[in-house]
Structures are given as structure tokens and as C-alpha cells.
Write a structure and sequence with these properties.
Rossmann fold, Tumour Suppressor Smad4, six-stranded antiparallel sheet, 4 helices, about 15% helix, about 40% strand, globular
Length: about 250
Amino acid sequence: MDDGRRCLGAGDRPAEPATADLVVSLGGDGTMLRSVQMLAGAPVPLLGVNVGLLGYLTEVEPPALTAALERFVAGPDAERGDWEIDVRMMLDVVVDRTGSGRQERFMALNEGVLEKQEAGHTVRLLVRIDGEPFTSYAADGFIVATPTGSTAYSFSARGPVVSPRHRALLLTPVSPHMLFDRSLVLDPDETVQVEVIGHRPVALSVDGQRAASLAEGDTVTVSASAASARFVRFGKRRFHQILKTKFGLSDR
């Protein structure tokens, strides 16, 4: 940029991403998720350019990129700028291996998912909320999502659609083989722990990327992260109107 600001593309791998003034993500929602992962919680604004299909998280189409960058450089309060930061809740996902004492840590914008690795079988998962047992699930999987992730995998599993302006933890079982098959919406200050209690292996995915393979006794703890994703938005975004447009909903 002419004024000396640093603008990084999602394909770049800077040693210090926090030094950038803006990250531009060229692609679809998957590229946006990878860009958020690249930033690893750094408070850097992210501008999404839709070169994918749905583009639910992106902000502009390719022909509008140059004008969007000019508006960003002009500043949020300038007449030519008129942009704002859309702050999105993220999750901390921590894996504890039984008997090993070691942990693996991840961050998620959409969700953490525990799911079966073997076709034709369910897995058994014990869910605790704030350290107290809630229930055990026999299911194909279990999703812990943010409001941003409520329109992703959780949506496909019949979870609730929640405005991303909220802060909440959404718990949604995937094809549960049990009477209780409803989602739960928890306060963001609550912590969810999921333990593998059956002998069948379980895969952990974070924002659609395989993160770990889990065995009996391993646990995954999910909580609201202190970090947030920060998206550049030009003008006010009305969640229900975006939902209507992206999913092709009609007035009648």
C-alpha cells in the first residue's frame, strides 16, 4: 500500500502476523477459516473476497477489491472509508490424552467436531458441562459450535441458527441413536468437556480440518476464547437478510 501499511494475502506465512494492518483472503468460506487459523488470535482485520461458492463469511466480490482496499486505507471514520470491524467469538479447543499428561491446543471460529472414524458404527461420548456430567451420547459425532458456526456443520445437523452478534456455545449431536436428540445453547462462560468412553476411535476436526485422533479416555475441552476474529465490513450487515440471500429464501 502507498502509505506503508502491510497487507498480507492468505497464502503468505508471516513470522509475525500481528504486524500486518490487514489480511486479504481470496477464496470462499474455507479460505476465510484458514486465514483465521493463520492469524492464531492476532487482532488483525480480515477482508474476505469471494472467489468461492457460498461466500457466507466474505465481504466483497473480486471486481470490488480495489475500491475496498482504498476505502480501508481511508479509515473507518473517513467519508470515503465508512467501514467497521465485525468481531466474532472463537473457541479454545484443548485435547488431553489419557495417562500422558500432555495437551494439544487449537482455536476455532466455527466449531470443534468429534466424530466416528469407522463407517457403520456410532461412538460413545460423555459430555460434562462445567465439570458436571450431563449425559453420554451414542452418535455419529458431536459438535461444539460458535454462533458463526451455527450456519455451518451444526446447521446440517439440524442445530439452531444463531446471530453471530451473540456469544454462546452450541452443542449439537450428529445422528444420535438415543431419545434426546436436541441441541443445547450454553452461556459463553460455561465450559464443555467431551470424553471418549467407548472403544471405537474418534476423530477431532477443528473448522473442517483434521486435528487429532482420539482413543478411549481422551478428553476434549471447549471454551470461549479470549481471542476473536475481526472481519472488515462496509456498511451495516443485517444477519437475517444475509441468511435470506445466501440460502435463497423467498418472502412467501
